[in-house]
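quick one: iron/sulfur cluster bound model?
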Amino acid sequence: MSIAPSPADLSQCVHCGLCLQNCPTYLQTGYEAESPRGRIHLMQALGDGRVEASEAYRQHLELCLVCRNCEGVCPSGVHFGRIMEAGRAQLYERASLSPRERLFRRLAFHELLPHRARLRAMFGALMIYQRTGLQRLVRASGLLPAPLAEAESLLPDLPAPFEPRWEVMTAEPPLRYRVGLFTGCVMPLVYGPVHAATLRVLRHNGCEVHIPRSQVCCGALNVHGGERQTAAALARQNLRAFLGRGLDAIVVNSAGCGATMKEYADLLGADDPDVQEFTGLVRDVTEFLADIELVPPSLAVRTRITLQESCHLVHAQRIKAAPRDLLARLPGVELLDMAHPDLCCGSAGLYMLTEREMSMRILDDKMSEIAATGAQTIVTANPGCMMQLQRGVARAGLKLDVRHVIELIDDAYGAHAGGRQALV
Ligand code: SF4
Ligand code: SF4
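yep, here:
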């Protein structure tokens, strides 16, 4: 089946240009073809046969972060994310890719991301590489070719992976909710402590937490890369893993994963009752906690923070108040806003690797805004943003922590004051 942006979606754009000043790539280049309106125009032209899927066409589409900032400000309600995902699928169907690009896509989208065991083995090897001192030797030797060295430098020090002992973890009494915890593909291996903090906070709030071992990657990176068929297979597997457990919610602590999971209807069809049930249950962890009667956090965290509002939380899921509401309840936390907390940090999944130059330009501007706040800690709600901001801190030579919202809540419940670590 051939995939293309739907003419109905494309025709919703009235070309008013109100989105332009909110598009990070347009702000950097000033080119119409690097704006939401310009990209929509290009996709319409490809559909009408007025342009071809040339190298230039491809660059304009690939330079989009799919941050969806344009969606939030569009008066016509253009579904830009959906348009761009279909536009990419159409592009890769038509464009001729080099053998290297084909290999990269095959490895990332088919051989690694969908397979948790392979990822675990790969990150296990990387942990040995980091902990034996091999990493220092390799870095000092300068042997790695530039793109590989860049990817390697992005990797934070790997903690022990998140491997909960049981599939169902009991609540701290009284039992109030039964929830699923979505763990994702790479996150348990790179940011396991964020999952551990999420699990502790949920249990402390009376949640029995189901962590199905049969769950898989949400498919977000595949969707953004135009690989919709693999993404649909992953989505189906997640439906099987989570449905039928009598859950009140499926809690997600990665904004990018949550946005994709809430939109599984675009991949699997809106009429399927299983899809309706599943998407109706998905909640970002901040959304879930802000909606329940939260056990009041009582320990002072004592830090000045600034909040990077992850694009897939604020623009795709339209959740702005929840993280702020939760952070305001933490004793000792002072929030110092940067000038544009809702503007992308340049992470955007694999973009930080594949579009390095633009990613760095956007990141450097972001770090200047952050430095101006005087904050000690950058707080966000998405693992990709955490990785990119850690890279930004190192590039700018700043002394700042980068943490997930849920980690601060966990601190305020005393996770590091002794006694609660044993819960996981
Ligand atoms: S995407 Fe929306 S805001 Fe941007 S030009 Fe089209 S209608 Fe206007
Ligand atoms: S998704 Fe982000 S980068 Fe892409 S056109 Fe919209 S605002 Fe620009």
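Residues 418-424 have pLDDT under 50 and may be disordered.
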